[in-house]
Amino acid sequence: MKIVIDQDRCVGAGQCVLAAADVFDQRDEDGVVVLLDALPPQESQSQVEEAAARCPALAIEVVAE
Amino acid sequence: MVRTCPFDPPEEYRTLREQEPITPVTLPEGTAGWLVTRYEDVRKILTDPRFSAKRRFARTGDPTADDAPAPPPPPGSFIVMDPPEHTRFRRLLTGQFTVRRMKQLTPAVEQIVTEQLDAMAEAEGPVDLVQAFALPVPSLVICELLGVPYADREEFQWNSATLLRLDASFEEAQAAQQALHGYIRRLAIAKRANPTDDILSDLVRTGELTDDELAGVGALLLLAGHETTANMIALGTMCLLRNPDQLAALRADPALMGGAVEQLLRYLTIVQFGLRRTALEDVDLNGHKIKAGSTVVASLTAGNRDAAHFTGDPEQLDVHRPYGPHLAFGHGIHQCLGQQLARVEMKAALSALLDRFPTLRLAVPVEQVPMRDNMLVYGVRELPVTW
Ligand code: HEM
Ligand code: SF4
């Protein structure tokens, strides 16, 4: 599982951080998403998928490998 | 459409969702539009850039209410802007409302909650929970964050309430909007001279906004920041009191509160008349031809009870249910900026209230609680409680 984020789309709603705090964070200055782990362990798959589903700005893509 | 139960949306929404999920309607101001009631379609509308957030609000006597394009957004009011204008304002603010920033704010919110509860406990019941607790807590918090003197609350609470009244006339709404604007504008100008440690001063410091834009942003944050959460706290409390098994489960296991707040948000969906969008071009929506310029109402209320989407029975409040994404904060690029703050406030307020008053109960029969049926944000007008 690989994660691709689109920082231009992000609206800083923080849904991804709530869903998977080990994988996503928000920049302090402008709240934009940062990826802590682009290749997270398999255990966090469901959380990451949840984050992608919740993201209101469609800024998170999960690519199967 | 009218509600038959204070916590359930009017029945018609369910019928529409099941039989005619995209339906032509006459909007309250008399023009033709569309109502969308399924979860998936609501999300689709709110993420599709062909639907603009520039919109016309339902106002009786609006002289511009015809098929003319939606009016240009007032300065700074980014809730009715599209990118790239919207992005410019939103980016200036998102750093102030991150999950981390809001968690850091938790002790300060808890402090405010405790002080309000102390004052309430000194009174002998019954008290009106709205005035004694639900309204002061988010008002104090947003005042502190923004740098607005709480002493001025009567004025901004009144103007905010007018803006949210469905039956406010066009003139009344405009007067309230202007008063709120003027108030924040004066405040922003004062902060330019004497900056303090708050969001308004931070915005001044960026040097990116004109006084009018500052006023627009500030007015939006002030209004959106206290009316909504106040209603969730009061209506949420009433809903828990009327669902004793859920209340008992929550009291037995306070760790359920985070999930319970999400369920209350979904179940009660206080932004009761949905979100308006304007089609920028002709759009084919599941076979329906939406003409350019038409207003589409995406019903958060109906979408949040869609059995095709939610597992379990969405007509029931169940604090044990895992949190799936709901629509109470909207969706798409305008999804609530203050949602992490609202979560912190609701958790702190409801936990402490239940803890402090183990015998909390309604002081009047439930039918006598006055509901906010004609307000854009649903809730109770007052909630007499005793303990
Ligand atoms: C339980 C409480 C709340 C609810 C249910 C709620 C609901 C909503 C909804 C549905 C929207 C989307 C509007 C649209 O797309 O047209 C929204 C936007 C917004 N909310 Fe909230 N809100 C709450 C609390 C707050 C708080 C505490 C703030 C404080 C700052 C806030 C500030 C905003 C702002 C600034 C927007 C506009 C965002 C944008 O256009 O990008 N809200 N809210
Ligand atoms: S959920 Fe989406 S919009 Fe929100 S912070 Fe994460 S990436 Fe950005």
Automatic annotation (TrEMBL), chain A:
What this protein is reported to do is described as:
Ferredoxins are iron-sulfur proteins that transfer electrons in a wide variety of metabolic reactions.
Family annotation (InterPro entries): 3Fe4S_ferredoxin, 4Fe4S_Fe-S-bd, Fe-S_cluster_ET
Tell me a Gene Ontology molecular-function term this record carries.
electron transfer activity
What Gene3D superfamilies does the database record attribute to this sequence?
3.30.70.20
The record's section on PANTHER family has: FERREDOXIN
Q: Which cofactor does it need?
A: [3Fe-4S] cluster
List each copy of the 4Fe-4S ferredoxin-type domain by range. Answer: 1-29
Question: Which Pfam families does the entry mention?
Answer: Fer4_13
Q: Which UniProt keywords apply?
A: 3Fe-4S, Electron transport, Iron, Iron-sulfur, Metal-binding, Transport
Q: Could you tell me what this protein is called?
A: Ferredoxin
UniProtKB/TrEMBL annotation, chain B:
Write down the InterPro entries for this protein, in alphabetical order: Cyt_P450 (IPR001128), Cyt_P450_B (IPR002397), Cyt_P450_CS (IPR017972), Cyt_P450_sf (IPR036396)
Q: Name one Pfam family in it.
A: p450
Name the Gene Ontology molecular function terms of this record. Answer: heme binding; iron ion binding; monooxygenase activity; oxidoreductase activity, acting on paired donors, with incorporation or reduction of molecular oxygen
Region annotation Disordered: where it falls in the sequence: 55-82
Keyword DNA damage: yes or no? no
Which keywords accompany this UniProt record? Answer: Heme, Iron, Metal-binding, Monooxygenase, Oxidoreductase
Superkingdom of source: Bacteria
The record's annotation in PROSITE patterns points to:
CYTOCHROME_P450
Family, per entry: Belongs to the cytochrome P450 family.
Q: What is this protein called?
A: Cytochrome P450
